[in-house]
Amino acid sequence: MNNIQFNRRRFSSVAVLSAASVAAPALWAEPRLEKTKISIAVGGKAAFYYLPLTIAEQLGYFKAEGLEVEISDFAGGSRALQAVVGGSADVVSGAYEHTINLQSKGQKFQAFVLQGRAPGIAMGISPKTMPHFKTAADLKGKKIGISAPGSSTNMVANLILSRAGLKAGDVSFIGVGTAAGALTAFRSGQIDAMSNIDPIMTMLEQKGEIRIIADTRTLKGAVDVFGGPMPAGCLYAPLEFVQKNPNTVQALANAMVHSLKWLQTAGPSDIIKTVPEPYLLGDRALYLAAFNKGREAISPDGMIADEGPRTAVKVLASFSPAIKPDKIELAKTYTNEFAKKAKERFKA
Predict the structure, then answer these.
(1) Cis previous bond, 199, omega within 30
(2) Candidates 3.40.190.10, 3.40.1350.10, 3.65.10.10, 3.30.1450.10; CATH matching 121-215
(3) Which of 16, 111, 311, 312 is a good FRET partner for 162, with 20 to 30 A between their CA atoms?
(4) Residue 100: CB partners within 8 Å, gap ≥ 6?
(5) Other residues' Cβ atoms within 10 Å of the Cβ of residue 134
(6) Per CATH, domain 37-118+231-346 is 3.40.630.10
(7) Is the pTM of this model over 0.85?
(8) Are strands 68-74 and 37-43 parallel, antiparallel or unpaired?
(9) Residue 18 pLDDT greater than 90, yes or no
């Protein structure tokens, strides 16, 4: 082989390698995941509160990030949290305010990608068992349905009661879940009022079976109830897990922000095709009506606005003596580091 042929072949090889590096820079730059198998605990996966998680799973966004995700469903957010505290799951898909409650008990957890920028929780009374209801003070001695004790639905009910001069002990809280069981409990008169999430609240509302007395399914409604923006569903984990597994946490955030971006433009047919049939509770039209009503509550980019955590700690402190705002380090309860990178990557 003469020098001219050798140089030509060498030049061709270099050109091919250069083209490959330009065509697939992301592949070469992909960081190695510390953990590829991740367990996520969620409380009521079929509810709108967790729709971004369902979309990420159904559309394969976790797999696209190199993750093998197992999602375990529990009756409420507090039960999902117990799974992570107990070590049977790695990450919680649940309410941001749990990170504040946990810190007040000496446990450090951190939220790293937001799913909902409003809680999407509504509270209503049964006109059947409380026909003469006038104010929240009338709830004294009544049975109130919530997803599970200690969950966000419980928190909203506690807030409404405290503003009416009542304490948690003045009522009976009953865990009813977030799906068909909650509908049955309400319709059969087992509970007099309910604090819960969609789609079940819209189903009851559209059929005239419930009278809504507090509503955080829109941004304005959330501000009216909480006095400011209130971060809701998010992925959070023990702070130690976040610090030890930054690439894995980034992959989770990427999948969720990818899902959030999809949801911004998804039409009714996209939703119906993607959401598992049992989640629709047998009524597609009502499910879509509930989705359209609460759509703005879905985070567009996974970022937690700084004023949100400040609202959350004030709300919790208003009815829970255990929460001392001056002793809570809010900066440790959340980080936007991962969501920001995902937002840039997906242009969310």
Answers:
(1) yes
(2) 3.40.190.10
(3) 111
(4) 309, 312, 313, 316, 323, 328, 330, 333
(5) 7
(6) no
(7) yes
(8) parallel
(9) no
